[in-house]
Amino acid sequence: MTKAIHQFHRTWIEQCEAAEGIRLRHGTESAFDYVVGEKLFSYAEAALTRPEFARELPTFVSEIRRIFFRENIETLWPRIERQIAEQMESDLYQMEEELSEAVEGEDLDFIKQDAARIRKQWEEKLRVARHLRDLLVSPSLGTA
Description:
The chain is an all-alpha fold. 81% of the residues lie in helices and 0% in strands. The protein has helices spanning 11-26, 28-47, 51-67, 70-101, 106-137. The longest helix is centred in the middle third of the chain and has 32 residues, at 70-101. The protein is elongated. 13% of the residues are buried.
């Protein structure tokens, strides 16, 4: 008997189907937040280190472009950027608070290293966000 193996790198198909249902029940904004703000970002981050996700990413982006009009994407995208900026500001503010409360020595060094790591993660997330935005609003997608 052959066991069915779930292909996690293909979950975008179900997520896009769910987004269409969300759009019908709750509106375009909710569907966009779900499939782009949550699912596409997580998927793109996985694609940075997992080749099977990277291979599927262009098809996922194409499906999102099919679901949403370019005008929808251009209108709703700034909300996604604001959410990222707010999360980043919150994390960096928390790190500044920890730095101001830290005493010299190992604690301070550890917190500085942690702050540098967090800043680097946010820079990467912003880079990914800009790349995804460009893919989603580009007049056409090329082939490699």
